[in-house]
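Protocol step 4 of 5: obtain the predicted structure for the target chain.
Materials: sequence only (see below). No template structures provided, no constraints applied. The aim of this step is simply to have a reference model before the mutagenesis design in step 5. Sequence pasted as it appears in the construct record:
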Amino acid sequence: MRHLISPLDFSVEETNDILSLAHDIYTNPSDYSDLCRGKKIATLFYEPSTRTRLSFEAAMMNMGGNALGFSSAKDSSVSKGETVADTIRIVSSYADICAMRHPKEGAPYVASRYSRIPIINAGDGGHNHPTQTFADIFTIKELKGQLADMTIGFCGDLKFGRTVHSLINELVRYTGFHFVLISPDELKLPDYVKNEVLERNHCTYTETRSLEEALPDLDILYMTRVQQERFFNEADYIRLRDTYILDEGKLAKAKKDLLILHPLPRVNEIAPEVDDDPRAQYFTQAKLAVYVRQAIILKLLGMR
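Step 4 output (structure tokens):
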């Protein structure tokens, strides 16, 4: 039995197999419509979520299976003091696979130690979000036609952004990516990610506070919101939340084939006018995530 706690739990070869499987599901959905009939996924979300939880449930239902679970900690026995270990012991008797989101880093790993079913980390604190990473690289490959030799800019909250940390960890395994890190000083990418991931893998990167200066060189722009739930001080959040707002004026300086991604939800870091720009593909990104999650479910259930 395998779990998916970090995107690095799968080798590059296995990751490429998942992307190929996701592409086949995307182009031939009817071939997969009954594969999980009689199977159930438990979605245990101790933090609020729209896209991730619903896309996991949609992924299982698209393959003929069912979903059960909860959408916040207050709707579960954790409000009575139940531990993650005890919760997963029980849920292992009800479902065939589990997707877990938790505000504490490492909680899905703890669950995997006590589980009798595969655990998928659906986001743990500011640490990892592996299935979002697979959705991101699947979107890049589908829309850019490659996973190599591009300049990608990460803009916004690079300190607490688990989607940023996970995606950087994954992209360093491919060749030719240059990373541009765009953030205020207070939200810079942690030194351990720069030292242990980028520099250890001999990847080039630059740091800047200016989105406008970085835009002309980017092939991909990965926007992120400033996450209020990660701040201990509301005044700091208010001061930093509007640091970057992408609008059509700024995009005038960008490449015509720039790919704009965002893990969503957005607050106001991307102006609504950008939605009509063909370079804006964050809603496509959310759609493609369902097919990736179908592929991951099949992989962990040993069905592909």
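Step 4 remarks: The longest helix spans residues 282-300. DSSP finds eleven helices and nine strands in the chain.
Proceed to step 5.
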